[in-house]
């Protein structure tokens, strides 16, 4: 599941039309929505942010709804579990409890709090997806250079990102090889040993690959910066207008609801 | 053990960023110094960062839950807690943007639990065990398990502060979150400790030069 997420989000980001949009403009839109989801009251703030984010992703960003659905499945599960744990109170059941199981109970106040937290979580996660599904990690790392992040830090982060896929491929290969040798059918002691051997093998192979990569980079004059030619992306006034319109619409809905009370 | 996006109130989210920032900056300076002193270690640091991303794929299922090992204990032993503060932050950003696991506004809190408190506590357990001359295997087990458990306790405390129980307050909420996570995280901490011992035993056999270079093994084999 994790591998599907890892490749599908980045693949969608590479293939989508918003790849041509400046990273800073996409960060502004996504972070604006994330902050709106956090700061706006849950009604109507969180449904407004969630709806706007989902429409932007499957609409102008042209990300297949299935990709968004797969990417959101795990976070939605965590958010649901977290909301339930917030909605349940511990101790003597209050008089106004809607339901009670021994020391656990759900009250109107705790249920409202759980729904509130869950709403902020879903809206915030969808808002973050606007950036995740439209911006490849490589573009984000390159963009950090414009923020004057020191080159060695960008180099470590970039190499970490690249090695991630190598390591996960290695993990899958080792797992398959061990499964084909019936490692999963072995007893607990042997399963522990094979897990340790898999972990160690991944680390040793990663070290070896790192040393070879280091030699290759040094041969090309690498010192502490992995500088690449940035892709030229013109300023997009239409995208900036879209950002302003979406954020304004969310906050107009919030203020209008507040004023109507 | 990641706090999801939107789960912390704005003030607390900002406060955790402020608490974590000095550690991450200190770690970033350590990474810069290390990569300038010995450029070949840049790749080694990147390996450490990537490696902390994969342990969840390696541990046999203990509870069948979605919890996973933190993987920071081994990094703290191999590279030290300051470096792990920076590498852990990088990995948490990757997890938030590639897996939608964790979040942006909860990044400060997650960094504190997973990349600062866990590694420092694990490293402290490792140094304590070595200073009182306990066997290396005990030290490794303690480091891995303590790093995992500390992360779990800190995350629970962060959630309890953010969402006090309607009836029993912060204390009741802490008990609630500790109880929920204990079902999966305590067995995982023990499992991570055992895996760590077996991992270093394996590395002793096949990658001794690397351990010697990191100061974790003598020239002669040491059996855990």
Summary tags:
heterodimer; A: 261 residues; mainly alpha; three-stranded antiparallel beta sheet; 9 helices; 73% helix; B: 224 residues; Arp2/3 complex 21 kDa subunit ARPC3; globular
Global shape of chain A: flat
Q: How many structurally independent domains of chain B?
A: 1
What does the average pLDDT of chain B come to?
Answer: 83
What is the name of the CATH topology of chain B?
Arp2/3 complex 21 kDa subunit ARPC3
> If you compute it from the alpha carbons, what radius of gyration of chain B comes out, rounded to the nearest whole angstrom?
18 Å
Rg of chain A, Cα atoms, Å: 24 Å
Largest sheet of chain B: none
Structure explained in plain terms:
The complex is a heterodimer of chains A (261) and B (224). Chain A is mostly helical and 261 residues long. Chain A folds into two domains: 2-135 and 232-260, no CATH class; 143-219, no CATH class. Chain A is 73% helix and 3% strand. Chain A has helices at 2-15, 23-39, 42-58, 65-87, 108-132, 137-144, 151-180, 188-219, 237-260; strands at 88-90, 99-101, 104-106. Chain A has a three-stranded antiparallel beta sheet. Chain A is flat and about 70 Å long. The model of chain A has no long low-confidence stretch (mean pLDDT 87). By secondary structure, chain B is mainly alpha-helical. Chain B has a single domain (10-213), classed as Arp2/3 complex 21 kDa subunit ARPC3 (Orthogonal Bundle), CATH 1.10.1760.20. The model of chain B is unreliable at 57-67 (pLDDT under 50). At the A-B interface, α1, α2, α4, β1 and α5 of A face α1, α2, α4 and α7 of B.
